[in-house]
Write a structure and sequence with these properties.
Heat Shock Protein 90; 20% strand; alpha+beta; globular
């Protein structure tokens, strides 16, 4: 039993070894973390601009447009939906948003962390087929949840992780293939 468990754990760790590897400057990794506050009127704009400047400077300019939209959607979700728990934010204090960017030769990772450990409602598939959506009344089409759907369409992968002290981080991965961006069908 323990041997099977150890083998499974080893396979899981191997699948994410690029994530746990210590950065080696010769590997061309670039990293940035920043904290913003949800109550600032310029939070989304600052996050988008920071995304564009960092990715361009890190040599991942091909992802700027998609990454700006992804960051804007995720930061917007924090601003509009997050309620901090367990005293992570003081009464009357600002809600913190932590942005993390990791650029590797094969991947670009973007993380947006907040102070609410409620799981995000990641869409599991198309709400309506594209052909059917055009025939439906606006009254039956969803009026929320489209942001994470857009994020899933633009990024190669999207997942979330609970924080060690509460809160959560939504992670997106963009795969780099010699500068070519592989788009998912909409």
């Amino acid at each position: 039993m323990e041997a099977r468990r150890a083998e499974r754990l080893a396979r899981e760790v191997d699948a994410f070894d690029h994530w746990f590897a210590a950065p080696d400057p010769s590997d061309g990794g670039h990293f940035l973390t920043a904290s913003l506050f949800a109550e600032s009127p310029n939070t989304a704009r600052v996050a988008r601009d920071m995304t564009a400047v960092f990715l361009t400077d890190a040599g991942a300019g091909e992802f700027v447009d998609d990454a700006r939209l992804v960051v804007s959607e995720l930061v917007g979700n924090v601003v509009n939906h997050v309620v901090p728990e367990r005293g992570l934010a003081r009464p009357g204090g600002a809600r913190r948003i932590d942005l993390t960017f990791k650029v590797w030769p094969k991947w670009v990772f973007i993380g947006v962390a907040d102070e609410d450990s409620s799981p995000p409602l990641l869409p599991l598939g198309d709400a309506f087929s594209p052909g059917l959506a055009g025939e439906l009344s606006e009254a039956v089409l969803p009026d929320n949840g489209r942001g994470l759907f857009i994020v899933q369409r633009l990024a190669s992968s999207v997942w979330w992780r609970p924080g060690d002290q509460g809160g959560k981080t939504i992670w997106c991965r963009f795969d780099r293939d010699g500068g070519a961006i592989e788009r998912k069908p909409c």
